[in-house]
Amino acid sequence: MPDVDGNNEAKKYYTDIPQTSKNYFLKGSNSLDWGMKNRLGRIFNPASGKTVMLAIDHGYFQGPTTGLERIDVNILPLERYADTLMLTRGILRTIIPADTQKSIVLRVSGGTSILKELSNESLAVDIEDAVRLNASAMAVQVFIGGEHERESIINMTKMVDMGIRYGIPTLAVTAVGKDMVRDAKYFRLATRICAELGAHYVKTYYVPEDFETVTASCPVPIVIAGGKKIPEPDALKMAYNAIQQGAAGVDMGRNIFQAESPIAMIQAVRAVVHNNETPENALELYNDLRNKKS
Ligand code: R5P
């Protein structure tokens, strides 16, 4: 029987409370579809707006890199401290337990090795496999200024189109040729091209001068790769500077898994990324954790 009391009816429907409409927390992502946002929200922590991606995909072109010889032994103990694992489908299927609660960023470009011209890549994973693997994003290498610049950009735009069809974001990974200058001018160019052509977030390298102009001119979030192994205090400082200058996180590999204590290092990096800890405090944390272990 319908309500006869009009006041009760109004109460049940909270007619005095307008439905809220929250802005999405990530830069440049407000207009994305629900599935895209949900996946990005599994990579970037909505509380801090940042991410610690553990990059372990190096084997796709350079084989068993130092620190990644046995991912089951060396990397699985780090998994709990990462927000996201960035890796290939081969390692995902063979080593990573399927009950992991971590989001997965799947490397989807490839096709060359360190023995050849690296920019000569193609798409190496079908979107359907990314769906099957429940990927939260797909990573494509883009070689701006490289020999195969055009092909690598088109690889990315193809993945963006396919990802939009299925609600999976694309991470553009800016790769820099050995002889190319790594400066803010180059990274402004590279990151902006990726974002303009549809990348949902971009991975780049940190540069000590004017990095904030790179993050400012890129309309989507930027995460930094760690690059070659450097001393732990320097790596923490680099992560700190990048975050303070607008990066939305790190996608760090060698500076974590080649550290003297990878398990201490990833926790120190987390402190910098999520809690804005200074490099000095993070180093203290690193040393405490490392000493506790030994
Ligand atoms: C390149 O090999 C991969 O895209 C890596 O994921 C990326 O370079 C990040 O790893 P790292 O911090 O070791 O540079």
Which descriptors would you attach to this protein?
294 residues; alpha/beta; 8-stranded parallel beta barrel; two-stranded antiparallel ribbon; 13 helices; 41% helix; binds ribose-5-phosphate
Shape: globular
Protein structure class? alpha/beta
Unreliable runs: none
In what order do the strands lie side by side in the largest sheet?
Answer: 1-2-3-6-7-8-9-10
Ligand set:
ribose-5-phosphate
Could you explain how this protein is built, in words?
The protein is an alpha/beta fold and 294 residues long. It is 41% helix and 14% strand. It has 13 helices and 10 strands. The protein has helices at residues 6-12, 34-43, 59-62, 71-74, 89-95, 127-132, 149-166, 184-196, 211-217, 232-244, 254-257, 262-275, 279-293, and strands at residues 51-55, 84-87, 103-107, 109-110, 122-123, 137-142, 170-174, 201-205, 222-225, 249-252. It has an 8-stranded parallel barrel, surrounded by 6 helices. Strand 2 (84-87), helix 5 (89-95) and strand 3 form a beta-alpha-beta unit. Helix 10 packs parallel to helix 12. The chain is globular and about 75 Å long. The termini are far apart. The mean pLDDT is 95. The structure holds ribose-5-phosphate. Residues 55, 57-58, 86, 173, 225-227, 251-255 line the site of ribose-5-phosphate. The site of ribose-5-phosphate has 13 residues, from strand 10 and helix 11.
Outline the secondary-structure elements:
Layout: H1 6-12, H2 34-43, E1 51-55, H3 59-62, H4 71-74, E2 84-87, H5 89-95, E3 103-107, E4 109-110, E5 122-123, H6 127-132, E6 137-142, H7 149-166, E7 170-174, H8 184-196, E8 201-205, H9 211-217, E9 222-225, H10 232-244, E10 249-252, H11 254-257, H12 262-275, H13 279-293
Parallel strand pairs: 1-2, 1-10, 2-3, 3-6, 6-7, 7-8, 8-9, 9-10
Antiparallel strand pairs: 4-5
